[in-house]
Amino acid sequence: MAKVGYEIAKNINAGLTLDLHENWPAYLRMATHVKSLLGRFLSNNNQWIKYEKSFCEKADNIIVVVDEAKVRLINIGIDPEKIKVVSNTINLNNIDSLNTIPDNDYFTLFYAGGITKHRGLQFIIPALNKVKLKDKKLRFWVLGTGNYIDNLKQLAREIGVEENIEFFGWKPFNEMMKYLGKSDVCIIPHTKSDHTDTTIPHKLFQYMYFNKPIIASNCDPIERIIEETKCGLVYTHDSENDFADKLKILAENNKVNTTGKKAVADKYNWEKDSETLISIYK
After folding, report:
1. CATH assignment of the domain containing 126
2. pLDDT digits over 85-128, tens only?
């Protein structure tokens, strides 16, 4: 679409703004659908890199979602003055309160999102065997769909933790929020890559807003925000032992996260980000 936008802008003598919500070349490097011979032919990564740089140079403004994505473009020679960060934050006017609370008999982990290999859930399931709680049963709720579900179910059976995990499939947002309210800890276990080091998941800010403690992998933007706001703990993305250690800390702590909501209210919200977006088009 960048080429189409460029041609239209040139014909009507208008400015061109590129919205790089994703690091597309990095995404293609890890996407399974381009691993085949045909996939590599149709989605040549070197061509995408050249294509992206070419139209970034032509654009008047470029929108990215995190500072790390801005640095990536600067490092390939793009003018920093035309790169604007408009993040993947939440609209505080469109979010309801949670109307459910955690179950005292369980310590519940919560994951919602796509279920593919690069989401990193294969490192979470083995960790469940490494955490023993005194007073509560440990359970893991997984909401979402994807091509890796059967692999995860098989892994859970092999390890012997299938009774601790429930796969609920895709749920409408309002229903998903009920599960979120009943959870004790929310996880973002994405594997670390060029893609996850330059993008940010919307759900991070949802979890922060509802003061849910977060355990997340050490993808650069997520780690930066969690350490800045002190709303959770970070583990090495492919280490089940490190995840288990962080889970034990939160399970034994029993302190409610109270910093996340304030950080969202003060900084990480759409009202703030929309100001930047509007300024681009003035």
Report:
1. 3.40.50.2000
2. 999 999 999 888 888 889 999 999 999 999 999 999 999 999 99
